[in-house]
Amino acid sequence: MSSNGTGYDLSVTTYSPDGRLFQIEYAQKAVENSGTVIGVACKDGVVLGVEKLIESKLMERNSNQRIFNVDYHVGIALAGWKPDTRQLVNKARKESQDYQSFYGTKIPAHVLTERVAMHVHQATMYWHLRPYGVCALISAYDEQGPQLFMVEPSGTSWGYHGCAVGKAKQAARTEIEKLKFTEMTTREAVKEVARIIHLVHDPVKDKDFELELSWVCDESKRVHQLVPKEVKEEAEQYAKEANKDDDDDDDEEDEDEELVDSGAQ
């Protein structure tokens, strides 16, 4: 047996000679085959955006939900294997309800993240289970202010100012790093998140998509909810115009380079 996966991927509890758990890596591949999901923390809230791929032209709009409410102040966006998302959302909601019932107060974002991460990690510790094929972005507005966390299929959790997962995560992260979202309002960030998702979507290789946006911010009274229809439409219009201008600039640069080359000849 070698460390390329042969023989070592039959159980999630079996390490390869170089210390890898291949089933977790396979779960991560399921996430990377999903639509891009973006989360950014702003000065007055958190914005989540999802590139919701349309599997069939016959499918009804808004039926393939990728952003969910966990509690009034907490939302979650998921990339990866769709059936697993429902289980993880139900687990997050149960943890939130149990905390509220026991302590009489809303669950802090970092506590919810730790409990969800432990549940995900538990699925990697027993041979009769398989890892969750999803990656979760958790947004919240609690006593600590706007919070954004990510839980990976391995059960690892991180806190972020901005992050992206899914098919075009690297391109999306590059665009996020160019902007200072911590100095933006959520209204400004919604436009930029929409622009990035439209930018990284490849209309040639990828299926059509529907943009899903949510926020939890001062404007929403610190309640997680989908972005209002008029704000979403404004953001999509901004995204299309901004990306069209970028394409026009690229075409002009290509034409200038061709003229320079022809002059040199």
UniProtKB/TrEMBL annotation:
Function: The proteasome is a multicatalytic proteinase complex which is characterized by its ability to cleave peptides with Arg, Phe, Tyr, Leu, and Glu adjacent to the leaving group at neutral or slightly basic pH. The proteasome has an ATP-dependent proteolytic activity.
Full protein name: Proteasome subunit alpha type
Subunit structure: The 26S proteasome consists of a 20S proteasome core and two 19S regulatory subunits.
Biological processes annotated in GO: ubiquitin-dependent protein catabolic process
Main location, first listed in the record: cytoplasm
Subcellular location: Cytoplasm; Nucleus
InterPro entries named among the record's database cross-references: Ntn_hydrolases_N (IPR029055), Proteasome_alpha (IPR050115), Proteasome_alpha-type (IPR023332), Proteasome_asu_N (IPR000426), Proteasome_sua/b (IPR001353)
Alphabetized UniProt keyword annotations: Cytoplasm, Nucleus, Proteasome
SUPFAM superfamilies named in the record: N-terminal nucleophile aminohydrolases (Ntn hydrolases)
Pfam families: Proteasome, Proteasome_A_N
Membership in a protein family: Belongs to the peptidase T1A family.
The keyword Membrane is annotated on this UniProt entry: no
Species this chain originates from: Acrasis kona
Region span, Disordered: 228-265
Domain (Proteasome alpha-type subunits): residue spans on this chain: 8-30
Top-level taxonomy: Eukaryota, Discoba, Heterolobosea, Tetramitia, Eutetramitia
Amino acid composition bias (Acidic residues), ranges on this chain: 244-265
Positions with biased composition (Basic and acidic residues): 228-243
Gene Ontology CC entries for this record: cytoplasm; nucleus; proteasome core complex, alpha-subunit complex
